[in-house]
Amino acid sequence: MPAPVNPFKKALCEGQDLLIGLWVALANSHAAEIVAGAGFDWILLDGEHGPNDIPLLAQQLAAVARHPAHPIVRLPMGETWLIKQALDIGAQTLLIPMVETGEQAAQIASACRYPPEGNRGMGASLGRASDFGRIKDYAETANREICLVAQIESRLGVDNADAILATPGIDAILIGPADLAADMGYPGTSSHPEVKAVVEALIARIRAAGKPAGIMTTDPDMLAVAKSAGIRFAGIGSDVGLLMSGAAALAKASRQAS
Ligand SMILES: O=C(O)C(=O)C[C@H](O)[C@@H](O)CO
Q: Ligand 1 pocket, 199 CB below 6 A?
């Protein structure tokens, strides 16, 4: 029995639709399960800015498994040991932040694949990835179902985008406008015209390299720019944002009603 098919990777490679996702940063399996059934194509379990660790991420992966929303796991950084642990708990799609060079792209790509394609350590028979050893052909078939998304979110990353895109094993690029804006001198202003121009040009380069481009943005104007430039996946909000805005609106409405 082979490793399970990665539906997100399949949809990116074979489909044309825009895949909509939600950032999930509450680091809670109940919250993840609630939004996984809401109708998103994917959810991003955020181990970079959410208070997540490997055990919490494993709980969330298990909690959302019965829903169609594909869980993408973002790690704090592209450390080889952390990539190994994330894959062994069953993450099939990883988002690695702040990828800035071709060398870094090669390192994270190698960490995601078993030899001879890479240097991922053998141990999935102990982990959820192989259903704890029940998927007998996991080691032979896992590589093709891993989807590695590199995040480009700095001027250096943009400058080196061609080298990152040319790296075998980098399956897609997600643009991070918030960090990109900060690096460009516009912290907190990810919808700055100069940022939008860089994002638009970067999407064109990603597409020209034959790879899918994605973005995370809650700014409608930035999303419109990205859509017109041809992105294939977009994170358009977060569980934290939904909870904050919903709670505040209810509190305000209840005061007005009383
Ligand atoms: O730089 C960015 O933009 C991102 O990486 C997304 C941020 O982490 C944050 O906007 C997620 O809500």
A: no
Residue 152 in domain: yes
Dihedral angle of Cα 217, 177, 151, 162, to the nearest 10 degrees: 130
CATH of the domain at 126: 3.20.20.60
Structurally, how many domains does the chain consist of? 1
How is residue 79 written in tokens? 């450390």
Q: Judge if the beta carbon of residue 179 lies within 6 A of ligand 1.
A: yes
The pLDDT tens digits for 76-134 are 999 999 999 999 999 999 999 999 999 999 999 999 999 999 999 999 889 999 999 99
SS3 152: strand
Assess if residue 1 is contained within a domain.
Answer: no
Tell me the C-alpha distance between 235 and 237, whole Å: 6
Its domain, for residue 241, covers 7-257
**Cα-Cα-Cα-Cα dihedral of 213, 215, 220, 226, to 10°?**
-20
Q: Any catalytic annotation for residue 49? A: yes
CA–CA dist 163, 175 (Å, integer): 16
Question: Could you report the per-residue pLDDT of 218-256, keeping only the tens digit for each?
Answer: 999 999 999 999 999 999 999 999 999 999 999 999 999
Ligand 1 mean position, distance from CA 197 (Å) = 18
The CB density around residue 144, as the number of other CB atoms within 10 Å, is 14
Beta carbon of 176 within 6 Å of any ligand 1 atom: yes
Of 155, 202, 216, the one to substitute when testing ligand 1's pocket (max ligand atoms within 8 A of C-beta) is 216
Residue 154 lies in a domain: yes
